[in-house]
Amino acid sequence: MSELTELSYALDTFYFLICGILVMWMAAGFSMLEAGLVRSKNTAEILIKNVALFAIACTMYLLMGYYIMYSSPEGGILPNLGFLLGAENSADAVLSGGDDAPYYSMRADYFFQVVFVATAMSIVSGAVAERMKLWAFLAFAVVMTAVIYPVSGFWTWGGGWLDAAGFSDFAGSGIVHMAGAAAALAGVLILGPRKGKYGKDGSIYAIPGANLPLATLGTLILWMGWFGFNGGSELKVSDIGSANNVAQVLVNTNAAAAGGVIAALILAKLWFRKADLTMTLNGALAGLVAITAEPLAPSALSAALIGAVGGVIVVVAIVSLDKLKIDDPVGAIAVHGVVGIWGLLAVPLTNGDATFGAQLLGIAGIFAWVFIASLIVWVILKAVMGIRVSEEEEYEGVDLAECGMEAYPEFSVAKK
Fold first, then answer.
1. Domain residue ranges of the chain, discontinuous segments joined by +
2. Distances (CA, A) of 311 to 347, 368, 372
3. Which of 182, 185, 229, 233 is nearest to 365 (CA)?
4. Model confidence at 97: pLDDT above 80
5. Distance CA 157, CA 244 (A)
6. Is the distance from CB of 313 to CB of 346 less than 8 angstroms?
């Protein structure tokens, strides 16, 4: 029996780590997506933001975020403050703990959770692109990954008051995606739109991205990484029931993404008379965000329909936010925020243990905390160091202003 327990522990730990690697690969997806949807003069800066925010998230979550999220009082609101990860599971605890014994490594749990933190922060990166100072963004990343995300994470996955109230979010439509969008929205409101995006008469001017093949690659990388995102959230694969659940989660995740693509593509054709690539790409991401709150309970067909509704919502949300002069170069607030809310509200449609009341409470609690806390941090950063580059730097591109190099330097001339 002990050999079987050891084998199960090893298998579940290995599965958790592999899923974490898949989610880490989503950092490449966000990098490529955002690099494709910004102008060429801002590409190097958006790339360095994505690499640096991942490093900051890993470090700050290691130092204090993980402790806040998982070492705080059950059912509580205020978290405990502490540092580092704590002791690893001992062999005795695994072999003699009975039904309550840990079934995967604590270090594997940290690794899987930290890539989720980085995902939430990546959502902010695209929304504030092309006009935010690099070091102001990185300073915000420190606070977001060390405190803001871990507190709402404690309320939910860490066993806090929202978990006690019955809030359900399987893999993070709200805990990760809506939280990232709330932080992004606060930043965008303080930052303001890009120059030339909106006319004085209310006109809206499109600012096309520089590299749509790169954006498409990024979307497909994210689609692939999402199998680890949702599949790993089953937490276990070493028994028949768990293995079947993982398979259902992956099938539903894929079905929802496909449904989002088809719905967004059809709506774009009907509305704009053209097959809009950027809307189609965001349709895929919307389907993925929508199913993330509950990828296990629905049938595959239901998952496709949930994703399709997300694909419709994201097109409407992107256009609506533009009319409100909320400038988001990559559509992150619509994809992760508006559709994240839909994903949470869709949970009771297929999961009989979830209630609309608990879901609404979770939406309000997470959004209010992350938005208000982020707004305060953005305001402080604006007062202390400024958060927006100058008009001249924005015109020339933040690549030169912030990085001193260009991502596409074909037209640079060497001085003799």
1. 2-73+80-219+245-403
2. 17, 25, 28
3. 182
4. no
5. 23
6. no
User: Can you tell me the mean pLDDT for 6-34?
Assistant: 95
* pTM of the entire predicted model: 0.95
Spatial distance between the Cα atoms of 49 and 55, rounded to a whole number of angstroms: 10
Cα distances from 343 to residues 175, 179, 318, 340, 366, in angstroms, run 11, 13, 17, 5, 14
3-state secondary structure of 103: coil
DSSP sequence for 332-347: HIIIIIIHHHHHHHHH
Nearest to 138 by CA among 368, 402, 406: 402
Query: Measured between alpha carbons, how far is 411 from 220 in angstroms, rounded to an integer?
Result: 30
CA-wise closest residue to 66 among 79, 87, 83, 88: 83
SS3 content of the chain, % helix, strand, coil (to 5): 70, 0, 25
| Whether the predicted pLDDT of 247 surpasses 60 | yes
Name the residue type at position 310: G
Nearest to 45 by CA among 151, 147, 131, 153: 131
What's the burial of 363, exposed, middle or buried (CB within 10 Å: 0-12/13-18/19+)?
Answer: buried
Largest distance between two CA atoms of the chain: 75
3-class SS of residue 167 = coil
The domain 2-73+80-219+245-403: what is its CATH number?
1.10.3430.10
Q: What is the pLDDT of residues 47-61, one digit of tens each?
A: 999 999 999 999 999
CA pair distance 186, 191, nearest whole angstrom: 9
The three-state DSSP-derived secondary structure of 254-297 is HHHHHHHHHHHHHHHHHHHCCCCHHHHHHHHHHHHHHHHCCCCC
Alpha-carbon distance of 362 to 174, in angstroms, equals 8
Q: Which residue has the tokens 């050999």?
A: 3
